[in-house]
């Protein structure tokens, strides 16, 4: 069974403590309008009126051509890491891009596609059953924003 994995807590705590983002900038502090601000750590929607961070995040350990960097939201206050076997609350759209990556953190060609949200666990399991896929990303089908990582349980 695949496991949904948030951005690691130590990285999130650094951002929340005014650490710089992947572009060397301080995270922007905003107020959530509710509904459309998914926290990539607790994997819940940031409630309306709550403080949030907007920043550039690169969910890869190394710099290389496939290491995409993009905008994400995080709760400004410390939140508990989400994740596990169940579809997280932040996956509230009808579909997402699901794509496999190798141990070298590069896209495994032929693995990416737009998948209906309810099928994400099954598609992630299919990809993770392959020897050439080390992990999976779930990304916005509209904006390509990183949502979360999926790993073998």
Structure in a nutshell:
The protein is mostly beta strands.
Provide the number of structural domains: 2
Fraction in beta strands: 25-35%
The low-confidence parts are none
Number of helical runs?
Answer: 2
What is the level-2 CATH architecture name of the largest domain? Answer: 2-Layer Sandwich
The CATH class label of the largest domain is Alpha Beta
Biggest sheet, spatial arrangement of strands: 1-8-7-5-6
Give the CA-based shape: globular
Taking Cα atoms only, what radius of gyration do you get, to the nearest Å? 15 Å
Helix and strand succession?
EHEEEEEHEE
| Mean pLDDT metric | 97
Helix and strand composition category: mainly beta
| Helix content percent band | 10-25%
CATH topology heading of the largest domain: first zn-finger domain of poly(adp-ribose) polymerase-1
Largest beta-sheet characterization: 5 strands, antiparallel
Euclidean distance between termini CA atoms: 6 Å
What's the count of strands? 8
Protein name: DUF1203 domain-containing protein
Pfam family, one: DUF1203
What are the SSEs and their pairings?
Layout: E1 2-5, H1 9-16, E2 28-31, E3 51-57, E4 70-75, E5 95-101, E6 113-116, H2 120-128, E7 135-140, E8 146-152
Antiparallel strand pairs: 1-8, 2-3, 3-4, 5-6, 5-7, 7-8
Structure description:
The protein is mainly beta and 153 residues long. It folds into two domains: 2-75, first zn-finger domain of poly(adp-ribose) polymerase-1 (2-Layer Sandwich), CATH 3.30.1740; 95-152, no CATH class. Helix content is 11%, strand content 29%. It is built from two helices and eight strands. It has helices at 9-16, 120-128; strands at residues 2-5, 28-31, 51-57, 70-75, 95-101, 113-116, 135-140, 146-152. The strands form two sheets. It has a five-stranded antiparallel β-sheet. β7 and β8 (146-152) form a beta hairpin. It is globular, with a radius of gyration of 15 Å. The N and C termini lie close together (6 Å). The relative contact order is 0.22. It comes from Paragemmobacter kunshanensis. This is DUF1203 domain-containing protein. InterPro entries: DUF1203.
């Amino acid at each position: 069974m695949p496991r949904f994995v948030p951005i690691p807590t130590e990285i999130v705590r650094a951002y929340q403590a005014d650490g710089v983002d992947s572009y060397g900038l301080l995270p922007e502090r905003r107020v959530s309008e509710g509904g459309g601000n998914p926290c990539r750590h607790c994997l819940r929607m940031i409630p309306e009126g709550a403080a949030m961070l907007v920043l550039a995040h690169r969910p890869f350990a190394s710099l290389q051509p496939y290491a995409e960097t993009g905008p994400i939201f995080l709760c400004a206050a410390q939140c508990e890491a989400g994740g596990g076997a169940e579809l997280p609350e932040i996956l509230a759209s009808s579909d997402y891009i699901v794509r496999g990556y190798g141990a070298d953190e590069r896209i495994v060609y032929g693995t990416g596609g737009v998948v209906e949200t309810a099928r994400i666990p099954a598609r992630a399991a299919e990809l993770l059953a392959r020897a050439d896929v080390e992990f999976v990303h779930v990304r916005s089908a509209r904006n390509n924003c990183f949502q979360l990582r999926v790993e073998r349980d």
